[in-house]
Batch of 2 targets.
Target 1
Amino acid sequence: MARKLTAPLIIVAAVWLAATGAARAQTLQRLTVESFVLSADTLQPQVDTPFHVIVTLHVRESVSEITNLQLPMLAQLDLLGDERQTVSGPRGTQYREVVTVVAHTDGRIVIAPATLQAIDAHDGKAKQWFTNDLPLSVHSSATRIVNGVAVGLFAHVARVLAALLWLALLVGAVVLTVFLLRRRAPVASPPVVAVSYQQAPIPEAPLVSEAERRRQQIRDALLVLRAERTRSAAVRVRAAIWRVIGAPEGETLGDVLRRPGCGEGTLRDLLVALERSAFTYDEDLPGAIDDACAALERYAGSLT
Amino acid sequence: MVERQPGDLHDALAKTIVGQENVLEALLLALLCNGHVLLEGPPGLAKTLACRSLAAALEGDFKRIQFTPDLLPSDIVGTRIFDQRESSFATVLGPIFANVVLADEINRAPAKVQSALLEAMQERQVTIGPESHALPDPFVVMATMNPLDSEGTYALPIAQMDRFLMKINVGYPTREEELQILDRFAMADTQPVRRVATLDDVRSWRAAAHAVHVDEKLKRYIVDLVAITRAAQGVSVKSAGGATLKAADLIDYGASPRATLALAFLARGRALLVGRDFALPDDVRAVAAPALRHRIGFNYRLATENVSADVVIDAMIAAIPAP
């Protein structure tokens, strides 16, 4: 029996690289993206069992770090850890980020694509790359056992069908070769055609505006805070919003408000409201969370 | 009737004192947190004026004690004299019996006189002969010290330094501030604003400051800040010559648990000053250097490597991420 979802836990793993916000305001990296993939070590994770979501990026350039790579919002998953590795060499740079997460409820989850903003080295234009999205089917222990039997049967049938198909293809190829040889006598040896493998270009999705992405993250945060009106949720949302605006952990509110664009308007009100909900006394917490939700709404509405 | 706020006192002080925001805030925090302040800076930077202005703005007694090498403990706390008419000893209370006491140039008096202040500052009472006398409430000692003139001065004992809630380094005003000083004191005769708040106001503010909420995350942050002063192996600082030094090599001893308490008191007081009933990491960080700088024992390498104590303290504060 599926456990009731206590509350969607927000984990805005939005900007994990240290100075993403600042970097975005500065210059993008000039990169030739060769692959950019989102995967998981299992597509059928079990409830309350940690698993890994993996982002892999390969670029032709040798760089020491990848900036402006943005992980998707991992709603309904709890973040347990994050490990990044950048290996660069003469063949380019391989970036791999492994996020350890856990789901607390069964059902279908679709993890949105990760994004990368960079200057395309081919044409010098600023672009945004997307990974694939990642559908996951989270099972409780009971459903997994039932599904496991079904999946086993299906896999067996699929293997038999695949073998038959390969056999048919092989026979067809032999018949076709014999037919062609009989029809055309070879006059001269055919020219050798050098076939160079070229990887299919990674589809470029249209640039999603920064404001739109940020608005979505704010809405997710609002959902979480409304669903889980606790101190810990307020603290998590506060941390998530700080990451969204590119503020590193360890800064104080004063530091964040001194950042460009943060010290005024609805964003300032939001940051102050979240700070209150994170640090005020218990009796004041419900009111502080109400104010924080209202501030989140106002800020989301102000993003154009 | 409009209830008076600590900010009113601040505004009154700011009408007299130009700039020196850290000094004004320190004086108010000392009042709110029931502590004492040590002001260190060259002569002529309005240290004494700030204390006098605070006393004037309060409806309380103000006494100034000019510390000199020939000062005696009885000159501060009082003494017993023989009354011939009554044929008995009578107690004459010293200038320490006031709400605001300005200990001017405190390091000019020898250690035994400075120590006479210890009981008064910590226990809020003095013992004269066989009798102990409670000091008035509120009781705030504001001591000034001149760092430039070392001849004929006596360094304050560690125990004495620890009694001060905070130590403020008073700096020179900016050019614009100095122009304002000219306008206020050379072109006009600005007098301290009088009786802005009562002693009862101060007591009620103190109670409000005591009720300011300090979250668990903030408590751990405070403890971490004090702990790093005792084990700063991972903190590096740059000397004036550009050499990289370990902070731990410059420190003989770290701050005491009294510093932990001071940080919590001051964070609460600062929160109240800005009108909040809960403290934030910003409050702790803002008061960390004034609460720690006189409680850390730096060794000779600080001077030989030409490193400022505040640079080391700032590096230690920066090494602890705020919650």
Note: Residues 266 and 287 of chain B are 6 Å apart (CA to CA).
Target 2
Amino acid sequence: MSNVWKSPLSGVLLQEHTTGVVDNCECPTQFAGQEAEYRAIRESVGISDNCHYGKFRISGSDALDVVNRLVMGDVARLPIGRATWTFMLREDGSMLCDVYVLCLGDDYLLFTEGSDPAYIAEAIYVATGDGSVKVENLTQTVAIFAVDGPFAWELLKELVGVKMLGLRYLEYVEQQLIGGVATMILRSGKTGEYGYQIALPIEHVETVWNALLNAGVDFDAQPVGYDVLTLCRLENRFINMHCEGAASKNPLELNCRVMVDQEKDEYCGYQSLTDSMSIKVENRIIGIRIDGSDTDVPSIGSEVVSEGQVFGKIVNARYSPYLGKPIALALIASEAAFVGLDFSVVHGPQHLAAKTVSAPFVFNKSMTVRPQEDSYRNR
Amino acid sequence: MTRKLSESMQDRVNRRHEILTAIKEELVERLELEFAPHDIDDDTFLFGGGLQLDSIDSMEIIIGMQSRFDVMILEDDVSSLRTINTLADFVESQIQVTS
């Protein structure tokens, strides 16, 4: 592991906050507290620092081939102005990180999460081989902020104009001025609400952060930390590479079979994944609602049992403010990974009653907000 | 390790599996998806990532569920139209009401 580096935002943040290390980057984990931050993301707008993402630009005549050797999805059909969300695998098929691949034409941008960017850089250099490409590691020169919430689109509309309303999921636009700074805005996110990632040169973090916060006043926007982002991610069943991603053998165990491009080969992890696809997957991930307690959140690794038999283990768990109950993800024996089954989760001396449930755990307010008609001010 | 589901749990799994398979077959056939039904996981999202369907497809899904199961999903019932499993939740709830 390389030396921990500090998010550039940490030097300019005025708001009280705690920090933690994510993907080898020290970044804000909490600001005003989970309750206020959660409410912002689920009801208005949350503004966060995603500087821990790895950021790489791959250019040159072999860029497409190199990117396709790196990721599980097929990038060949990706048009300019669009991105795809996929995974980088290790040779054994396990997941190294998740990655947004943005097609810039002949060049590609990679925004990665879930692993130290130094490891990802190594994987990229291996994949380049003798190819004619230039790889730029932009991790510590480009910053990424995120804006998430049912009215995130409206905050950005105020800042950069109505074109935000037309930006579709996984589309990006460049040269968008925020506080006078040219930024790239990618519509994406892992909270289940409207979400946008804003990439900018690292020297302008203070200007853009403050511009977002100032514009956010009218929307009761809050700065939000990594902790609440991972909670929202779990509630909406976006994969957390540090929990279920790390516990699984391959993406097939995580309900990602449709993301595997079966016409593409020769990417890292391909052989192992192909072998796994031809046999029955041993375990599958499933959502679990803890009905036996309103407060006891099971530990990672807790056994999921029925009639004295162990069927799986908990790989991610939090208290869900939306449900008012603990929720969890478990890797369960495939024959039992179905919705509507009653299990117990071992929690110290207790056995907590639990039920397998469908993804996602929550119904997002963003599903009912229509940007052409609604406004935070008239809600 | 040898594990065995109880009889009632196995019945539940069989019933759910039957509905899930029928839903996947209906979607693949009706929407001409490039996936085989067994390549679609139960918690696969219908829109956005996942199957990457669009709003026009949602009407086809509603018609498909009516045709296959004789159940009616209301157009604004977006909570049922999220994943294969949420569709199955809806179908199961309607079948239980009918029976």
Note: Chain A is about 20% helix and 35% strand.
